Amino acid sequence: MDIKPIVAGNWKMHKSGEEGVSFVGKIKNRILDKVEAKVIFCPPFTSLFSIVKALNGTDFSVGAQNAHFEVEGAYTGEISVGMLKSAGVQYVILGHSERRHIFGETDVWINKKIHAVLNAELVPIFCIGETLDDRKSNQTTLVLENQINLGLQGMESIDPVKMIIAYEPVWAIGTGETASLDQVAEAHAYVQSVLERMFGQVGYKVPILYGGSVNENNAMELIQAKGVDGFLIGGASIKEESFCSIVEQVSKFYKR
Ligand code: PEP
Where are the alpha helices (DSSP H) in the chain? Predict the structure, then answer.
C-alpha cells in the first residue's frame, strides 16, 4: 500500500475565526491544484465550523486538537467527540505533549479518548514521544512502547486508514531543534515494530508522522527518512509561506 504523505497543521491557540478562514482561503488558492499530500488543518475549537465551511468541496480536511471521552454531562469546558463530528471534523489530535505535560493528561485518559474517537468513526492523530531526560537515559524505546501499549489498550485490531501515529520527541517541539535523520528513522522503525507485534502485519501500514520543529528548510530531508509518512507541524503551520512550501515539497513522496 502506498501512503499519501500527510501534512497536519496544529495551530495550537492561534488565530481567531476570521484569521483562520482568511488563512485557509489563501492556502487553498495557492496550492489546491498542486497538492498531492493529504492536508489536515487543526484550528482551535472556535474556528472548526467556519473552517469546515471554508474548505467545503476541497480535498483538505479538518481536525480538532483535543476531545473529551464522555458523550455528554457535567464537564465544564470540555467538547465531546459527537460535537466535533457534528461540526464536520474528521481527525482529532490526542496525547499531544502539551496536553500530557501542561494539562497532566495520563495514558489512561488518552486511551479512553482514542476509543471515543474511533467509536465515532473519526481518526485519531495519536502523539507519542520521549523527553530529553528519557533520551539521555536511553529510555526512548521503552517510553514509546509504553505510550503505544497504554494508549491503544483494548484495541483488538487496527485499521491503517483509521489511525495516524505522530512521533514527536518532546525536546524537538517548538524548540527549533529537530531530531536527526537517524534518530527519526530509528524511532519510526521501532514504532512500526511495536504496532506489528500488537496487531500483526497490518500494524506496519499505520501512517507515522514526524513532528518537532519541521519547517520549509528541513522538510525535504525529513520526509525522505525511512518510515516517515508525513508531518505534524506546529509553528510553521500558521505561516502561509512555510506551510505552502512544506506541502509542496513533500507532495511527491508516497511511502512504502
Ligand atoms: C507540535 O506542536 O505538534 C509541533 C510539532 O510543534 P512545532 O512544529 O512548532 O515543533
Answer: 17-31, 48-54, 81-86, 97-101, 107-119, 132-136, 140-151, 181-199, 219-223, 240-250
In this prediction the pTM is: 0.97
Q: 212 in ligand 1 pocket by Cβ < 6 Å?
A: yes
Q: Report the nearest-CA residue for atom 2 of ligand 1.
A: 234
Burial label for 13, CB within 10 Å (0-12, 13-18, 19+), is: exposed
Condensed to tens digits (0 to 9), the pLDDT of residues 222-245 reads 999 999 999 999 999 999 999 999
Residue 65 Cβ contacting ligand 1 at under 6 Å: no
pLDDT in tens, 32-49: 777 889 999 999 999 999
C-alpha cell at 114: 482514542
**Among 94, 232, 242, which residue has the most ligand 1 atoms within 8 Å of its CB, making it the best to mutate?**
232
Supply the residue whose CA is at minimum distance from atom 4 of ligand 1: 234
Cα-to-centroid distance, 224 and ligand 1 (Å) = 19
Q: Measure the CA–CA gap between 168 and 130, rounded to whole angstroms.
A: 8
Ligand 1 centroid–CA 238 distance in Å is 11
Helices and strands of the chain, counted as H and E runs: 10, 8
Note the pLDDT tens digit of each residue in 72-128.
999 999 999 999 999 999 999 999 999 999 999 999 999 999 999 999 999 999 999
* CB-based contact 210:217 (threshold 8 Å): no
Q: Rounded to whole angstroms, how far apart are CA atoms 230 and 4?
A: 8
Integer angstrom CA distances of residue 113 from 39, 125, 140, 226: 23, 11, 24, 29
